[in-house]
Amino acid sequence: MKSLIRFIARRNSTTINNPVPPSTLRFYCSHSPPSSSAPPNTKLFVAGLSWSVDEKSLKDAFSFFGHVSEVRIMYDKETGRSRGFGFVHFSNENEATSAKDAMDGKALLGRPLRISFALEKVRGAPVVVPRLPNT
After folding, report:
1. Which of 38, 70, 73, 117 is the most exposed, having the fewest neighbouring CB atoms within 10 Å of its CB?
2. Which pairs from 69-77 meet CB under 8 Å and 24+ separation?
3. How confident is the model at residue 15 (pLDDT cuts 50, 70, 90)?
4. Which residues on adjacent β-strands are paired with residue 107?
5. Rounded to 5 degrees, what are φ and ψ at 107?
6. Residue 113 has pLDDT above 70, yes or no
7. pTM of this prediction?
């Protein structure tokens, strides 16, 4: 690591007329290793909901896999109609994982569900969702 810093410092001091001692250089790393104490993900994002699905029918569909603590369907403010997606909260991560694995792609009231773990809400910053190639 020290040799890398010396190389960068030498290169930096030769590119500019003002030599910079290595002790004044600062390096930043944006990659942080995954935390072992990450909170369990018990919230599922459920997309592809029919307009006729309500909270009770969604809870009934997922309660087979464990205790569902909360169900929220997102509605359009102007029309009051479902926006076609919602969230299902489980009491533990194993129940959420088994529900996701079993229900992803299954039909509910005539429409196939697309299920993934919900991302944490970030206020004030754009959320970038990686796109996976269709396989």
Report:
1. 38
2. 69/42, 73/49
3. very low
4. 112
5. -90, 140
6. yes
7. 0.63
Q: What is the DSSP letter of 131?
A: P
Q: Is 66 left (phi over 0), alpha (psi -120 to 50) or beta?
A: left
**Nearest partner of 93 among 117, 73, 114, judged by Cα:** 117
Give the whole-angstrom CA distance, residue 122 versus residue 120.
Answer: 6
- Say which residue, 13 or 110, is predicted with more confidence: 110
Specify the higher pLDDT residue, 34 or 41.
41
Q: Phi first, then psi: give them for residue 96, nearest 5 degrees.
A: -65, -40
Over the range 92-112, which residues count as b (16 or more CB within 10 Å of their CB) and which as e? eeebbbebbeebeeeebeeee
Mean pLDDT of the chain: 78
Could you tell me which residue, 121 or 102, shows the higher pLDDT? 102
The residue among 43, 45, 94, 40 whose CA lies nearest residue 69 is: 43
Secondary structure (3-state) at 44: strand
- Show the beta-strand stretches assigned E in 1-135: 43-47, 68-75, 82-90, 107-108, 111-112, 114-117
Residue 89: is its pLDDT beyond 50?
yes
